[in-house]
Design goal:
By secondary structure, the protein is α+β, with helices and mostly antiparallel strands. The protein is 28% helix and 23% strand. A hairpin with a 6-residue loop joins strand 13 and strand 14. Bound molecules: flavin-adenine dinucleotide (FAD). Flavin-adenine dinucleotide binds next to helix 1, strand 3, strand 7 and helix 10.
């Protein structure tokens, strides 16, 4: 590729803060709120888009507040977020589910509003429409980030930076070793979510409950669909029949998620293999392909799934959701074995309940590996192996390909974000690097905020 030389130039320092959180998705919102619990600290949250929420805004339910045994395993800041949503009538109960442990339907738009309320109450300074493009690293320590915006190229300096970008952008720019995908680099494919309205829900419920052989639901008993919110994962036979008749369906299972209104279904069925969200050409092609797939899937739903006959496309999500991209190599890299064996960690900073759920990189089906109980996540997954001044929370924390397929759900990302924000503020108060923080103090602070760490 042709290149040009960019001359060195002086950059304006827009802000100097104690804790800088980059990326306002589920992890980043929780990280900023937790860091700002120390009122002596200046905490800033920056985000490339014009709203906070990340994947909380694309029509997904929050999975696995409950664990495999039915008890609540994610509490703390994440539950407080839901409490605020409940107060607005903007979230469902945590509905138990055999496949997803639990689902909590949220109003994507109200998630943006609640994020603002949390930041205002916590005293976090929010800066939108800025994109982190580089880092300032001195003597092996991150000192700040370089941002680009309509105001040009500027710097924000910080004592600690928390990378909650999902893609590990800050860590990668700072030189932290990162991995992508399975042993062949294959990553779980992304999906453009879309919302159908005018769905006759009773017809769909009746089909699943009365004809379970035809409208199969994988591991979920048909009775789960009799009432309340649900996610379908199945109808494999319907898809096969449609494919035989020439319909172009990119998935093996029909994944439909009830919305908060009775006639709403969010559809999680477009899927573009081979997309790399860190490459704009690849991501752009993915958005283009997914948009075409959306109409193919809609045709299938209308012709093969009871209740969709008179439905219409209400809207598509603002962006195609990314399941997997970079993860850092941390002080500890969590594995699927840790999850399936429910390994105990002295430095546990979160508990999660979601199974290993790998959407195959090459498209089509999914591999699910269920755990008997919830599992702990150690502090080391937040701490890059080689660099100071930086924590990494959310789906880019240190996990292998299979483990991140479990910990990527939003309840867990929220718990990891809260842990990172808490560790950052305690490290600053104690005058140590986050890598040397007293984890027992972090655990106590998390428990004081009603987080769940035991099993
Ligand atoms: C299609 C799909 C279906 C899923 N289904 C579910 C589900 O049903 N339930 C569930 O709980 N989870 C689900 N997940 C997983 C979950 O949504 C994500 O793993 C989770 O949201 C990750 O949270 P995060 O905070 O790490 O990242 P994100 O939610 O991706 O947030 C990252 C934020 O950082 C910002 N950002 C990124 N780079 C920069 C930068 N350089 N500068 C400034 N800002 C930046 C982004 O704009 C974004 O707001 C699904 C994911 C996908 C894609």
């Amino acid at each position: 590729m042709k290149s040009i030389f960019e001359p060195a130039r002086e950059l304006k320092v827009r802000a100097e803060v104690d804790v800088l959180v980059v990326g306002a998705g589920p992890a980043g919102i929780m990280a900023a709120e937790a860091a700002a619990q120390d009122k002596n600290l200046k905490v800033m949250l920056i985000e490339q888009r014009g709203y906070m929420g990340g994947n909380l805004t694309i029509g997904l339910p929050i999975l696995s507040f409950l664990g495999p045994k039915g008890n609540q395993v994610v509490k703390g800041g994440a539950q407080k977020f839901i409490d605020r949503m409940w107060a607005k009538g903007a979230a469902s109960e945590h509905k138990p589910c055999k496949n997803h442990m639990s689902l909590t339907i949220i109003d994507p738009d109200q998630a943006k509003t609640v994020a603002w309320e949390i930041m205002d109450d916590a005293g976090v300074e929010v800066l939108l429409y800025v994109f982190v493009v580089d880092t300032i690293v001195e003597n092996g320590k991150v000192k700040g980030v370089v941002i680009e915006s309509k105001a040009g190229r500027e710097v924000i300096l910080a004592k600690t930076v928390i990378d909650c970008t999902g893609d590990g952008d800050v860590a990668f720019r700072a030189g932290v070793e990162c991995n992508k995908g399975d042993e062949n680099g294959g990553m779980q494919p992304p999906t453009l979510m879309f919302l159908m309205r005018g769905v006759e829900m009773q017809k769909l419920r009746d089909a699943i409950c009365l004809e379970p052989e035809k409208f199969d639901m994988d591991v979920m008993p048909p009775s789960q669909f009799r009432e309340g919110k649900f996610i379908t994962v199945g109808l494999r036979g319907r898809i096969l029949e449609a494919q035989q008749k020439g319909y172009n369906i990119p998935v093996a299972r029909t994944i439909l998620i009830t919305g908060l209104n009775d006639d709403e279904i969010w559809v999680n069925m477009t899927r573009v293999s081979g997309v790399d969200s860190t490459d704009p050409v690849s991501y752009t092609k993915g958005e283009h392909d997914a948009r075409k797939q959306m109409y193919d899937v809609m045709a299938y739903l209308k012709d093969f799934v009871p209740g969709f006959e008179n439905s219409w496309l209400e809207r598509s999500a603002a962006f195609m959701g990314i399941r997997e991209s970079r993860v850092i190599v941390g002080k500890y890299v969590m594995t699927a074995q840790d999850i399936l064996e429910q390994k105990r960690f002295d430095d546990a900073i979160a508990v999660a309940g979601y199974p290993v759920d790998i959407h195959h990189a090459k498209g089509g089906d999914c591999t699910m590996l269920f755990c008997e109980d919830a599992y702990q996540i150690p502090y080391g997954v937040l701490v890059p192996q080689t660099i100071e001044g930086l924590l990494v929370a959310g789906r880019c924390s240190a996990m292998d390909h299979e483990a991140m397929a479990a910990t990527r759900v939003m309840s867990t990302c929220m718990a990891l974000g809260e842990a990172a924000g808490t560790a950052a503020r305690i490290a600053i108060a104690d005058g140590v690097e986050p890598s040397a923080v007293d984890v027992a103090k972090v655990q106590k602070a998390l428990i004081d905020n009603d987080a769940y760490l035991a099993l």
